[in-house]
Amino acid sequence: MMQPTQGMLPNAPLFPPRASEMAQDIDLLFFFSLGVLVFFSTLIAVLIFYFMTRYHRRSPGQVGKEPQGNTLLLEAAWIIVPLCIALTMFTWGARIYFAAARPPSDARQFYVIGKQWMWKIEHPSGKREINELHVPRGVPIKLKLTSEDVIHSFFIPAMRVKTDVIPGKYTSMWFNADTVGTYHLFCTQYCGAEHSRMVGRVVVMEPTEYELWIGGKTGSGLVEGASTGEDLFVAKACNTCHRPDTTARAPMLWGLFGKTVHLQDGSTATVDETYIRESILNPAAKIVAGYQPIMPTFRGQLSEEEIIQLIRFVQSLKAPAPGTVNTAPAPNNAAPSPVGDFRGSEAPAGTIAPAAPGEPPPEPIPAAKPKDRLEMPAPGKGRDEGKR
User: H-helix or E-strand containing 80?
Assistant: First the structure.
């Protein structure tokens, strides 16, 4: 395996190795700013000692003289030169900031959950790791991060990326690893007694090796056996209201992710990860126009991993093509819903859909009676009477 690219001082802990495309730009800006600081600090200190020696008072009664000549050029120089240097650093830093804040559209999205005192990471394929992040080299990686308890901070020194991980909301960061190797992962926000142990590692692999690793049944740090978003969608009976037909009592979710919805108060909201999370935990916060606030809260019933699974599932629901019936695959080994599933538009015969608050329960849907089907005799009746 290749060794990571070393920084300017390989043996100095203040200069970690560079392993991403953006790391070199950040290092150049850092050393430029440091050089400007050292140069002007030295210049000012030398001038202070020079003027203190050259122009010190020779006798107790000596009085200073006003400078002679035009000083406009000197005054303009000490204003314009620092201004140009400051604007150069600002423009340079702004360019790097905008590049760091805008991940490419083709970036692979990973989910990261911080918890005292570990990092739980989920790959786009659904595989999960604890305190390890395996990524392919040369592929943009976008991390969507949240916390289950307190504020954490996700820091990968070799990639020169860091962001706070805040409970109750999602933050994001991205990088593009360009060197194969293993790198440190830290939490840089004090988060409790075991904060110093909240560490991990980032393993950068060749794309072919990563595909083989992610496709394997086992691997270092992998966690298996968690429920999928599709299973949770049915298990929590979300499909009884979020249906792909006109009988739905809640917004249709197919093709909704990324769209703008109109709310009852006249405002609008974009359906993203934060909006879906808030709708699950606090459904009354933003009610879509035309619907009643009948959805119960799932606060305390779902973990952050399960919320992410539901978000992934909603994100995967694509809008049907015009003139086609909206269908979705049935979940494997999922418990049947009280009212059919999210694929169809009708409930099974003989079942009762749950009523909205304040409404009487609806009548059972009668089962169809085909003409060519024989009616079985009722209990207690004879065989001949049943045939009639």
Answer: helix 72-101
Residue 271 CB partners (closer than 8 Å, separation 6+): 256, 257, 258, 259, 260, 261
Tokens of 279: 């709708």
Q: Which residue is associated with the tokens 């107790």?
A: 60
pLDDT band, very low/low/confident/very high, at 344 (cuts 50, 70, 90): very low
Q: Answer whether 335's CB lies under 8 Å from 239's CB.
A: no
Classify residue 214 by burial, with Cβ atoms within 10 Å: 0-12, 13-18, 19+: middle
Superfamily of structural domain 108-223: Cupredoxins -  blue copper proteins (2.60.40.420)
Amino acid in the structure at residue 116: Q
Least Cα distance to 213 among 132, 120, 106, 311 occurs for 132
378 pLDDT more than 60: no
Average pLDDT of every residue of the chain: 77
Phi, psi of 124 (to 5 degrees): -55, -30
Distance CA(147)–CA(299), nearest Å, equals: 15
What average pLDDT does the segment 248-273 reach? 82
CA distance 371 to 291: 40
Where exactly are the structural domains of the chain?
108-223, 229-316
Q: What is the model's pLDDT at position 200?
A: 93
Per-residue pLDDT at 263: 86
Asked if the model's pLDDT at residue 272 lies above 90, the reply is no
- Distance of alpha carbon 355 from alpha carbon 188, whole angstroms: 49
Q: Domain 229-316: state its class.
A: mainly alpha
